Amino acid sequence: MSHSGVRWFLASALLWMGLGGAHAREGHASRIGVPGVLETPSALMPAAGTLGFGFSNAVPYQHLYVNMQPFDWFNFGARYNIIIGTPYDPTPLGAKQAYKDKSFDVAIRLFKGGHGWPTLAAGLLDIGGTQYFGGEYLVASQRIFDLYASVGLAWGRAGAAADFANPLGELSSSFNKRPGRRDPGTGGQIAFQNWFRGQDVAVFGSLIWSPSAWPRWSLMAEWEGNDYSHERSKHPVTQSSRANFGIDYALTKSATIGVQYIRGNQIGFQVGLQPYLGDARRLPVRTYMPILQQDVHPSYRTAQQDGTAEQLAALYGVLKDEQIYLHALDWAPDSNGVLTLWQSSSANYKPATVLQIAGRHAVNEVVGVNQVRVITVEGGVDVLIGQASRQALLDDAEPHIEYAGLLPNSSFEPGDGWGMDAARYTRLLSYPSLSYGVDPAIRTNIGGRAGFFLTDLLLKPYMTMQLTRSWSVTGVLGVKIGGNLDRATSPRSGTLHRVRSDLEKYQTQSGDIYLQRLDSTFIFPIASQWYGGITAGILEDMYGGVSTEILYVPFARRWALGWDSKWVKQRGYTQRFNFLDYDTITSHLSWYYRTPVEGVTLQVSAGRYLAQDIGATLDISKSFRSGAKFGIFATKTNVSSRDFGEGSFDKGFYVAIPLGGVQKSLKNSTVQIDYRFLTRDGGQRVYVDRPLYGAFGQYHSGALSDD
Fold it and tell me: For residues 568 and 670, which has the higher predicted lDDT (pLDDT)?
């Protein structure tokens, strides 16, 4: 395309987008998973709380991707790029499979369009490592009736067609120089020095037509900015045309399949899954029941004036139906009308919502209640006291009061340890209690030399004995049903003790039945807003030992401070009761901060890790009311990149997925996926199943209400 043709294309596209409406289509995933069309990106992103998985293929490239949208304005993706025809490595085993390159991608919405203005976004592709697929872009997108149009500029591989000189070169000549790609044996470092640099840039643009009459179908056309002249592939990648075309069909609201015509000479396909896991409020049907007045006829009540025991039993029952379980309660007709409830909830309620639900049921079921105190119990410890008067609960029933509007008319204060022992009615939940079940699971090894995707299908029988309200014992087994994980090999990288990189030995030598976990946990109050915990036994797949933890959660503050120390010993590869010779002590000081911005939590931990290296970890996560959680983490210690091995430093992401939307019987269950592209030995920790911040960290400022 000539320079004059490029200018005409840009001017026409921007003018056309200016004629469109203000509403943006939920983000379509490109062939590499980022918001986009086929090979080009878009500024139109999916709703916050969307998680995407997918696979695309067009010789010589295959892409396996996962994509997270924690905010409306921010998108994060990770992918494997498979290059068919290029060997994994020179070894005989590596020559049997294709080369894999790992990438992280980031997209940020700079401006939300509306009133005729397009939406603007910037993105970074393959932000670090080898930079084989590295590139950057600026893109503007707009809806025009049933059409979704995008136009932008691309740098790096995405702009290899080099339509004209890099405009940023006018600001500084340093933008005209782009460093070369890195040796594949290193990687792991973020390539700041490459971003938006290079002698030239290329124009790209796209259209998606999603006709209202056939909402399941989408037709796509685009002009991409890459001419494939500088590819990593062992064999040249030919391009007959920069124009690509595709058609998508939506199988469900979240699942799509598509066929594409790429580079003017290749047929490709794509399958994608993009479920929405974001905010899900409990419908306030029971919450907004009418409150019975004191002077109504007794037949409207569940018990008569003198039926205190029956009234309390009825209250216990209705709260159980609301997934609020009473440990104890304190009430007498001569108690000045104050009813105190000690409770734990298995629902995803915030404290203000629990007070609202429990308080309104209390004044309905128990005659003479003028004030309700609801004490939240976690791990057997009183952590929060909320109280509201009968009048506040009556006012909250008015139609103009918003959901959880009780909060301004109630009060909260920190709990006082084990206060329920002084209640009039105690031990409403009996101990010891036993819970058990079987969960399906998979154990995977992705990207290894022996095969790209090795996996075992498992069943995990589990049992927890709650001996007291603060002391529990848990055991978990792994039972192999089938799979090919026994083919995994154990590559050597780095010079540290193999505290984690022997993963493949555990996966291949544990047999068809192994012991994943067998430990005992005791949680206790130290002082007001101070909590302690001790866990001992087989803590996880690779380590057993003793863990101690202390947490301080100041009331009405957004921060918390914790300390943990562990003595651990490495388990034998058969994952039974045998141990290896290696043992060590780890210790970390952690600072937690629940930001006021869209429910984001920051955690910074510093201390000594499993390989006896010293450093710090940054963890950033976003939680949703549904129970879903997206997070990323990175750890840097005093281990050099050479000693660490491929990847340079530890990093990865995790996703917590609530299962209630899949099966109602699993409404209180969550599966968490933790993923590192490379399992190395630097910056590694042992995590216990019940960390104190997970139990107590929510009870501070900004976490009391659902609003």
Answer: 568
Which one is predicted more confidently, 278 or 141?
Answer: 141
The mean of the pLDDT values for the chain is 83
* Number of alpha helices (DSSP H) and beta strands (DSSP E) in the chain: 7, 31
Instruction: Collapse the DSSP code of 666 into the 3-class scheme (helix H, G, I; strand E, B; otherwise coil) and give the result.
Output: helix
Cα–Cα distance between 5 and 459 in angstroms, integer? 60
Torsion of CA 389, 391, 394, 398, to 10 degrees: -120
The pLDDT tens digits for 215-231 are 899 999 999 999 998 88
Q: What is the mean pLDDT of the segment spanning 566-586? A: 96
Q: How far is CA 74 from CA 123, 125, 620, in A?
A: 10, 14, 13
Following DSSP, what letter does each residue of 126-191 receive, concatenated?
A: S-BTT-TT-EEEEEEEEEETTEEEEEEEEEEGGGTT--EE-GGGGT-GGGG--PPPPPTTS--SB-
**Residue ranges in 536-671 assigned as alpha helix (H):** 641-644
pLDDT band (50, 70, 90) for residue 584: very high
Contact indicator for 24, 44 with CB cutoff of 8 Å: yes
Three state DSSP letters for 381-410: EEEEEEEEEHHHHHHHCCCCCCCCCCHHHC
Neighbours of 91 (CB within 10 A): 11
Residue 633, Cα to own-chain centre: how many angstroms? 11
Tally of CA atoms within 13 A in the half-sphere of 10 that contains its CB:
15
Cα 380 from chain centroid? 28
Contacts (Cβ under 8 Å, ≥6 apart) of 469 = 327, 377, 379, 380, 429, 431
The residue assigned the tokens 């959660």 is: 553
**pLDDT at site 5:** 45
Say how far apart CA 671 and CA 655 lie, in whole Å: 8
Q: For position 148, what pLDDT does the model report?
A: 94
Q: Quote the CA–CA distance of 460 and 449 in Å, as a whole number.
A: 28
Residue, of 6 and 319, whose pLDDT is higher: 319
User: Which string of DSSP letters, residue by residue, matches 485-533?
Assistant: GGG------SSS--SSTTHHHHHHHS-SEEEEEEEEEEEEEEETTEEEE
Could you tell me the domains of the chain?
3-273 (2.40.160.40), 298-422 (3.10.310), 433-696 (no CATH)
Sign of CA dihedral 92, 93, 94, 98: positive
